[in-house]
Amino acid sequence: MSIYDIILEFSVRETAPVEVDDVVDFIRRLGIKDHIFFFEDDFDPGVLVGTINHWEYPDENGTIVRCVDIYTAKSLSDDERRFVQVKELLHIVEPEAYRANSLQEVKELIDKIVLPPDLVDFANDGVHANSDRVAILHAIAVMIPMAIRDLFMAPVRDGKVDHKFIADIVDVPVKYVAVVMSDFWSAIHTSMIEPARIPDKVMTLGADRTPIELHSVPLGADAYSYAKSLSERSRGSARPIAACIIERRGVKRTMSAADLAAYSPRNGSK
């Protein structure tokens, strides 16, 4: 499961607003974090509006409990606070390394488009700042689903409602509603969900590391769990699987049968 899948999940929602707890519940079901806490702090919103802190501790059984604290500036309005909380939540799902491809794709789309100040200047900012801009686009896609956009396109075109009216309904800052209701949003949204429509691949290898078979992972399935299942089913066969090459969004990783046996969606690839 990835950020692309979350955007797809929320894209069909026609009820508004999307609540922060809706996103929290979805992320908890993924098993990435055990506890998510929200706090407000005395940040200067001109410098920092939100931040995230990952931490963990062993419980009485020695099991590692993974937690995250999300902080937002006290001075934020309710709609700004909701938006920043969701943006930081999405950082949990997609590590920085996996956001590189999205960063380049979105950069190419919006380089010459007029956007709010916090979504421009890719050329002069570092990777962290630009990655955060991609997270802003991801948060926009989750909090203002495409289904909601579709419902309002005709009324906006006919002058019956304005962006402020929509912002009040979705409870998101109006500047982001303007982005979603623009002509170019559809292309940006498609670029963000396209990787979710391209299946991951698993190449199984024999003991001599020669290929056995290439598999396409069903859309929505976890590639590592799929590879683990293939490995387990091959035990006792004439040519058991010794390792798998797993390809996700162009990134390949080789895992031995022992690595796969230890894998679970909760503990990741460790």
Q: How far apart, in Å, are the first and last alpha carbons?
A: 17 Å
What is the β-strand count? 7
Counting structural domains, the number is 2
Give unreliable regions as ranges.
Answer: 96-114, 122-129, 266-270
Mean pLDDT: 82
Oligomer: single chain
β-strand percent reads: 15-25%
Radius of gyration, CA atoms, in whole angstroms:
21 Å
What structural class do the secondary elements suggest?
Answer: alpha+beta
Helix content: 40-55%
Largest sheet: 4 strands, antiparallel
* String of helices and strands: HHEEEHHHHHHHEEHEEH
DSSP summary: helix tally = 11
Strand order of the largest sheet: 5-4-6-7
Explain what this protein looks like in three dimensions.
A hairpin with a 5-residue loop joins strand 2 (50-58) and strand 3 (64-73). A 4-stranded antiparallel beta sheet has the order 5-4-6-7. The chain has a 3-stranded mixed beta sheet with strand order 1-3-2, with helices on one face. Mean pLDDT is 82; it is low at 96-114, 122-129 and 266-270. It has 270 residues and is an alpha+beta fold. The chain has 2 domains: 3-197, no CATH class; 201-262, no CATH class. Helices cover 45% and strands 18% of the residues.
Short note summarizing the structure:
The protein has 270 residues and is an alpha+beta fold. The chain is built from eleven helices and seven strands.
Q: What is this structure's SSE topology?
A:
Layout: H1 3-11, H2 20-30, E1 35-41, E2 50-58, E3 64-73, H3 78-93, H4 100-110, H5 127-143, H6 146-157, H7 163-170, H8 174-180, H9 185-197, E4 201-205, E5 211-216, H10 223-234, E6 243-248, E7 251-256, H11 257-262
